[in-house]
Amino acid sequence: MAALRTGARGRGGMPLSFVIARYFAYAFAAVATAWLASFMALSTAIDSGFVYEASWGPANAREVAEGLARDGVCGQQDVPTAYRYLILNKDGYVLMTDLEGTRLEDATEMARAALAANPGTVEIEGGGSGLTYAAFPLEGGGACALVSEYLPQWVSRDLAGLLPNPQDLMLAGAAGGSALALALVARRASRVISRKMAPLAEAAGRVGAGELDFAVGSTNVREVNDVLAAMDAMRASLAESLEARWAAERGQREQVASLAHDLKTPLTVLRANADFVAEELEDEKDADLAAAARDIAGSVERLDGYVRLLIEASRGSGGAERAPMRPAELCEQVLAEAAQIARARGVTLDASTGPAVAGAPEAPLDRTTLARAAANLVANAAEHARSRVAVSCDVAGGHLVIEVSDDGPGFSPAALERGCERLFTDDSSRSSRDGGRHYGLGLHAASEAASAHGGSVSLANSPSGGAVATIAVPL
């Protein structure tokens, strides 16, 4: 990794409380502006003569009443919209009105009292809640009562019937304008705060993606800069920790590669001597010792291949190498290696190959990996067998099936469930014939090899006794 960039920074920038207070001030100013604009619109309508101001009705009640008493009232078109009205005939019956409820009752009482009043008399009373009542007799008989409320009203009766009260309209406009203003301020605040938090989100995303060699950004908000500084310190600490870990792992890989390479020299000597011994024993017609020498030579050859794989793996270049091959070739190698393991362990081997194997076409297989997986199963069975191990190869259902069984005590329930897990060794029902230590890697390695080919390893106990392990790989 390149040299790490550092971006530690102090507590610079404005306080977050200032940013929040600023937008509270914006919100207050926006709401105040919305209310002021609505009030100004109402004032303009009043000044333009479209609306009566709130005090016009009570202030002009006597003057309007005297004019109506003098000119007469033929209908609501004669009464200004600042008033509600009631007209009685000379007998005290209602001729027309737009009042209702308590207001109608109070107006009726005053109008009936005005029937007996002298012409030109106007009686004005306050009704509470901003109401003003005016009652007066009419020329030619009858009486009229006017009720005004302390509210602005439309001058035009057509507008009064079409639109809400001007004051209600002003309040609705102010409320709507306030809501719109608050929404705009909130949107602006959200965008600004998101922009100020962007360096924090970017730094978290890059650290989460494993990118540690970068400079953490900054903002003009003090608290966000504090978090960024802490994140930068965390990034640097994590990078140093990973660098140390990678260095240690690199050293371990190099050491393993060196040791594996050094093994190649004694293995070469061992293999050459094993071949020499086998040739000499064949000349002396000692078949058993010759076979043992050949097993040593074959095992050394496989071990040399494992050392090569170990070196490649330490360099990070090892892996499965599939190549087209006939299943019969793989089965031949599996049974040959199983024979060597059985001889070394002193157990009898029953080897068999199904008839379908010979005719199976080529398939992409990693010969070394699958052979090693089968050898692990055979070695595991030979260690736990009493006297016999059976290995069979067959092709069934489009799968290459390698089955390994023994006449030992079988798998425990825990082993049947978890036997292929890495480092699982808690199988109390099975102990090796030589009391050797187990590391819980053989079945796991076989399972991994099968999984790499899209197959699996299954464990079972034979009804007649003993364990059965099966590799099934799709062709």
Automatic annotation (TrEMBL):
SMART domains tied to this protein: HATPase_c, HisKA
Residues that span the membrane, as ranges: 20-42
Record GO terms (molecular function): kinase activity
SUPFAM superfamilies hit by this protein: ATPase domain of HSP90 chaperone/DNA topoisomerase II/histidine kinase (SSF55874), Homodimeric domain of signal transducing histidine kinase (SSF47384)
Keywords for the protein's UniProt record, in alphabetical order: ATP-binding, Cell membrane, Kinase, Membrane, Nucleotide-binding, Phosphoprotein, Transferase, Transmembrane, Transmembrane helix, Two-component regulatory system
HAMP domain mapped to chain residues: 191-243
Substrates-to-products reaction catalysed: ATP + protein L-histidine = ADP + protein N-phospho-L-histidine
Record's keyword annotation contains Kinase: yes
EC number of the protein: 2.7.13.3
Protein known as: histidine kinase
Lineage: Bacteria, Bacillati, Actinomycetota, Coriobacteriia, Coriobacteriales
